[in-house]
Write a structure and sequence with these properties.
By secondary structure, the chain is α/β, with parallel strands linked by helices. It contains 15 helices and 18 strands. Strands 12-13-14-11-10-15-16 form a 7-stranded mixed β-sheet, sandwiched between helices. It has a 6-stranded mixed β-sheet with strand order 7-6-5-8-9-17, sandwiched between helices. The chain has a 3-stranded antiparallel β-sheet with strand order 3-4-18, with no helix packed on it. Helix 3 packs across helix 4, helix 4 runs parallel beside helix 5 and helix 9 crosses helix 10.
Length: 455
Amino acid sequence: MSHAAINPATGEVLSTHEELTAPELRKAIADSHQAFVAWQRVPMPERAAKMRVAARILRDGAPRFATLMAREMGKPVKQGRSEVEKCAWVCEYYAEHAEPFLADEPADTDASKSYVAYRPLGLIFAVMPWNYPFWQVFRFAAPALMGGNGGLLKHAPNVPGCALAIEGVFRDAGFPEGLFRTLLISVPQAKVVIRHRHVAAVTLTGSTAAGKAVAKEAGARLKKCVLELGGSDPYIILEDADLGQAVEACATSRLLNSGQSCIAAKRFLVVPGVREEFERRLVERMRATRSGDPMREETDLGPQARADLRDALHDQVQRSVAAGARLLLGGKVPSGPGFFYPPTVLTDVRKGMPAYSEELFGPVATIIPVKNRAAAIKVANDTAYGLGAAIFSSDVARAERIAADELQAGACFVNAFVRSDPRLPFGGIKESGYGRELSRHGLLEFQNAKAVYVR
């Protein structure tokens, strides 16, 4: 079966690719397993040297990689270059920190010597999405490979060029042939990979439905999963917030990557005293966004990645308006080629509307009126998701207490928009998944914490 990569700015077919045959897939997994068997014994300084070369290759190739992302999934090129730089950063971070993170941990027991030794699990199968086609992969691959594991990648079918380019980065950096392998395969073939005896664990970033399907398949074979799934991140705007700071952070988060991010700001919970001014400023800021060809440097907002995604987003907006939401900006599908959707602001959103409970994966801001701080916290937590959350207030100590103790999410930010960072664990709770990526936590997810007891 063949899959086509389509330029979302024009509708042009860029390339087609054929899925691996069953024998090709078996051979690819076997070759990767053999590469892992040797790699796990490679000293950490040698692994780190290769990872640093990968970082250099990324930086040198940033313009080319950014163009590839723009063509395959519509990311504005300036955002694509930033994504590549972040990938180089995560490579360098683990090149520097993996060895101390994985050092033996002494344990005080009745043995003459006892400790915890961290050892790799084996091949990690990654099912990755199109929205951050480089970053999503590198944030799993850098710690997995530095930890002595191998990696198998099933990327989204609309970004095959990105998937193959990432394999090329690791190959050109001197990693063993096959240690990191891109598999151009279908969803049914992904099940075959999960079941394979040489595959030790699975990591997936994607929808909640996809996460449940992968967890079921992996769980039936007692294989560990890390799942980073959907999100409907609440941003609480309190009466003492710096509105200039809050609006800029909220709009930036909502519009970044054309709104196609699990951790984008999606629900704005605004108390009465500042609601009117917040709405005015947010509409003004989002209206000023420059939409258009993602290949142009001045473009802030590119197209949605696929036509069906754009149409599903518009349907959510229309159903919310029909249920009583008020449209302050946008909400109309533009004419012309490509899968564009305008910056859109909905207000008077209430429980029962799609914009209240569903994830809106595009440049649509949802304003939910709340009576006070307590109501804002309650609404923030009134969601099936639990990925990120943010709160804006000049009373930083109070906001920190709310972030740390009252908001139900894997990452809570005060006076800033939620983002991933190699130095911090990243992941969610509830239907946003489980497990963590990044930081020491992400590195240890795919390690065997082995107890060693010597008498």
